[in-house]
UniProtKB/TrEMBL annotation:
Belongs to the GSP F family. Residues 21-142, 221-343 form the Type II secretion system protein GspF domain. It comes from Rossellomorea marisflavi. This is Type II secretion system protein GspF domain-containing protein. Its main location: membrane.
Length: 351
């Protein structure tokens, strides 16, 4: 079954392949394999690309490069997964972390494929409806207007508004598309000049997106801090470990703010409650966990709860996308139909 992994040019870039590889590696580590033994076992040398990848990984490990850096570089992992592996090097649960990261990547791939299936048909309908409106605006409507003028027909106010709407929609869609493309180009060329912390600050203020953003950051921070604390690492040292990682700059910023708050005499739950990237309940969870001596367990539990809620909200959002798009397309088609038929009916009534 390991031969099913597709490796091109010595790199593993497909998310589902990365997920399978991490899950299998985590399973081997849980069975007592070392990291090098797991890599040697998984990357069967029956393909030149697999041999190249195995050689690079084992060579980097022999030189003492961190596991997180090796995997991130050779597999091109998302920063979320890279940070998890980085923290696992400190709290020791590498096998479970890799299996969890593999599940995350596989689920992410499924969600992306599901999203594509949800929007591809409605998107095609929008394109077709837009083309119909362009043809109506540039070909059919001028002929109708000539016919109306020759017959002395004056459309009613409602019909005029409907015709104006149908004429304006193609321009509106073109304007929206131009704005989106311009924004995409600007973000692509200036993405390295914009601080991730700045982006996070603005994202946390957007009413709809902020909920997803805060759930994601709270889940990750609570989970990793809980893992570190459960392995005997102090709160301050755990925050310093989180601050030292370079995969997620926003967490670096958060950890730095928490450390400064602790130095100024504030309690951990007071510091966490002042962070705009977290759920508001995190302050209560930390205070409750410190009061009963179960802070590591409650942080991990709360992190898992945030992840479940994030998945539920994402799934609910996908369910609404297709009906909304279909409704939008339906209104387009109705507008096109009425813009053609209503003037004709009014002309027939006037005869």
């Amino acid at each position: 079954m390991f031969r099913n992994l597709s490796i091109g040019n010595g790199y593993m870039k497909k998310r589902d392949e990365q997920g399978k590889f991490l899950k299998r590696m985590g399973s081997l580590l849980e069975k007592g394999y070392t990291f090098s033994e797991a890599v040697d076992f998984l990357l069967i040398p029956d393909h030149p690309a697999a041999t190249v990848l195995k050689t690079r990984i084992l060579h980097a490990l022999q030189e003492g490069v961190q596991v997180s850096k090796v995997i991130t570089k050779e597999l091109s992992l998302p920063t979320h997964v890279s940070a998890q592996i980085y923290f696992a090097e400190f709290h020791g649960q590498m096998g479970a972390t890799l299996m969890g990261a593999g599940d995350y990547l596989l689920q992410k791939q499924k969600n992306q494929e599901r999203l594509k299936r949800v929007i591809q048909y409605p998107l095609m309908l929008i394109i077709i409806a837009g083309m119909m409106m362009v043809l109506l605006r540039n070909v059919l409507f001028p002929k109708f207007e000539t016919l109306y003028s020759s017959m002395g027909y004056e459309p009613s106010t409602g019909v005029q508004l409907l015709l104006s709407f149908v004429k304006a929609v193609p321009l509106l869609l073109a304007g929206i598309l131009a704005v989106l493309l311009s924004a995409g180009v600007i973000l692509f060329f200036f993405r390295h000049r914009i601080s991730p912390v700045t982006i996070s600050i603005h994202t946390s203020r957007i009413p709809f997106l902020s909920r997803f953003f805060k759930l994601a950051h709270t889940h990750f921070f609570a989970r990793e801090l809980g893992f570190l604390l459960s392995n005997g690492v102090s709160i301050t040292e755990s925050l310093r470990i989180i601050e030292q990682q370079t995969f997620r700059p926003t967490l670096q910023y958060v950890s730095g703010e928490l450390i400064q708050g602790l130095k100024s005499g504030m309690s951990l739950h007071e510091c966490a409650g002042a962070i705009p990237f977290f759920q508001s309940e995190v302050a209560y969870i930390i205070h409750h966990g410190q009061s009963n001596g179960r802070l590591p367990e409650e942080l991990q539990l709360y992190g898992d709860m945030c992840f479940v809620e994030l998945e539920e909200r994402s799934g609910a959002l996908l369910k609404y996308i297709q009906p909304v798009i279909f409704s939008f397309v339906g209104l387009f088609i109705m507008a096109i139909y009425f813009s053609i038929m209503m003037p004709l009916f009014q002309m027939m009534q006037g005869v």
